[in-house]
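Sample entry (406 residues):
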Amino acid sequence: MRGFAGLRVFSNRGASRRTGFTLLEMMVALAAGALVITTVYTISASASRHFQEQQRISQLQLSLRLALDRLRRDIARAGLHATMDSLIDRNCGQPPQRVRGLEVIDRSPVSMAALRSMTGFAEGNGTHGDQLRVTGNFRTGDAYLVRDWVGNQLRLATQFLAFRRSFTADPNTGAIDPELFARTFAPGTAIMVRLGAGLRAWGAVDRAIASADGQNATIMTARNAPNCMGQVGLEGWFQGGATVAPISTVEYGIINAVAPPAGRPPLAELQPRDPQVTGPNTVLVRTELNPLTGEVITGPTPILEYAIHFDVDVVVDVGVGNQPVQLQLFDDAMAQQQTRDAPANIRGVRISLAARTPEQDPRVSPNIAPLPDGTPRVFQVFADRVGAARVRSVYTEVFLPNSALR
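Predicted structure, serialized as tokens:
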């Protein structure tokens, strides 16, 4: 035991007291960790919301550009192979109703009713819901040479380039697609035959057939050929370069996807999943009509969802007789009057189009001033909620190449 008398015994009590964390230290560490996690979560959530919002805005801008491109293409076809105003044409028998190449309905009742279905809509806020009708050849890019029109049979010159370009199924054999020809000139389709000396004859298709070998293509009309001042038959029409084309009217306007105009089907696939979140889906649609009867051929076809502004102005040549050309811009009711009274004097169209994001953002003030021309920059969907939906808008001017120049 003596050998161990000189050994010193150390106690571990002090060391054990100094290891680990005290309760206060743990509370401080947990609080700091919670603060860091909360900060990271807040930043991440904010970044995620911002990213999603930018995605929605990018999608909105893309949809606007696509819709505007479609509008631009259709407007440029006003009067193509048809007329800007049948009232001033030399017609072989007047069409059942006046045909206008372009017509504006200022703040269409249907469009404005769709916009008013949102509880936050304010009258006089500058939002427009115009309606636009354009008449021309929207099915093909050509008019087709006529061999003769005897009785109710209008036979086409199938060897000419326009016919081959539109209906050739096999370029190697020259075979024609009879089904495509029959669809282009479907029963009931309005047609206009442009004759020699500026004469025009309107008719409707009863049936159209074409042989696959491309030797024959015939359009049976709903009535016999009119007596066009004696210019009937091959000699009179062929020498005058008679041509025929299918004519239709396309109509643009804003409708409510759930409650479209009477006689039009609802757009079930575009009805919002939860209207309490997005409000009603007001859609800019395209409808194809028969210009002679007003009957719906196809549509309405959706062009732009959540559209809240569609304003159409026209550029008119107001010069008279031998006076120089004088171009003047007309909007609203004056644009409607000009297109109804003198559609042949329309030289261009100015379009303003805007759409909103589906959700109303509580961080966006509804009191942001509109653009100088009145186009809204925000749109309040729900009057009893804070915030507003974000808005993007586009503009374009379209020249009408088929409008007769003095």
